[in-house]
Amino acid sequence: MAITSYMTKSGKRYRVEVYKEGARVAAKAGFASQQDAKKWEARVLTRAERQEPTGTDFLQLATAYLDDMTERRQHNTVQYKIAALRRFLLFMGGSFALEQLRATQISAYLVARKTAKGPKAANRDLVEMRALMNWGIRKRHYHENPFLPFEKFPEKKFVRRVPTAAEIDAVLKVATQEQKDFLDILRYTGARLSEVCKLCWRDIDFQRDTITLWTRKRRGGNLEPGVLAMPQILRDILAARKAQPAAHPEYVFVGRDGRQFTKNSVRLWLPTLCKIADIQPPFTAHAVRHYFATLLKDSGVITSFQIQAALRHKNLSTTEKYLHDLSIDRGVAALLDGK
């Protein structure tokens, strides 16, 4: 509430402006006393509480968006979207009309998120909010994106951790046979973690010495196959695994419940193996893919097109960016060592 006084021919009078959730809902002038102004403000707020909320309800829009995303995106992607929208709703104290959303509220949320979890977390939530509103505009549920004017916070760039061959060998020495087999497939194919988890025996062709890896090239897209030539060392590893009496009839790797292996399983035991092998900081399963790409690049005999096919990138530009991020120019060091 804001009460201001002003002078008239009849004496001092008061003007009152009533705000609810940061938005002005009413204003009136001509009160003879501040007490009269406050009484009027109380009546206005009471009426406002009784009225049904008007405008575009954020929660309803978010619910419709998430229902659509559930049909089009992968489970983990949807779960993050749910978490991001829930955090913002909690910060706002529940649902609200988008017409009443203020820039100061968005800014306060992003700053709070950055303070609590860092700039990357704040930026990711900003991306999710923008995606929701862009979807709402496309579906003609709303007319503008209130999150669009906000810039991302500066982030500290991530340095890729590429393990050495010696570090991978050290981890293999302390691993179980199943863990060894899993890591060997990663390092001899450069496969993504999810691709090895869903690997089936029908994807292994021992006659043609090929292995087929399935992945989604685009968000919400279909699983697409990538067929790779299988080196003899990997063929021997897989043949020995298939010959085991306890081998699963369908999946190459299975969880404790007898179902398809999960990425979380590897994310739990790989850091532990690195710790046992005294590898610090530990490397991830995806870092083994980096090792594979670096190995091909440093060989000097494999072309960019061959590396693209091996990594199963849709576009060569993706491969070139990938290799650029992993590359280290040793020319200056070599020159100095030669002096």
Using the coordinates above, name the CATH class of the largest domain: Mainly Alpha
Shape: elongated
Give the name of the CATH architecture of the largest domain.
Orthogonal Bundle
CATH-defined topology of the largest domain: hpI Integrase, Chain A
Beta fraction: 5-15%
Radius of gyration: 30 Å
Extended strand count:
6
- The CATH superfamily of the largest domain is Intergrase catalytic core
In sequence order, what are the helices and strands, one letter per element? EEEHHHHHHHHEEEHHHHHH
Binned, the helix content reads 40-55%
How many separate domains? Answer: 3
Largest sheet: spatial strand order: 1-2-3
> On the 0-100 scale, what is the average pLDDT?
86
Distance between the termini: 77 Å
Number of helices: 14
Q: Major sheet, described briefly? A: 3 strands, antiparallel
Structural category is alpha+beta
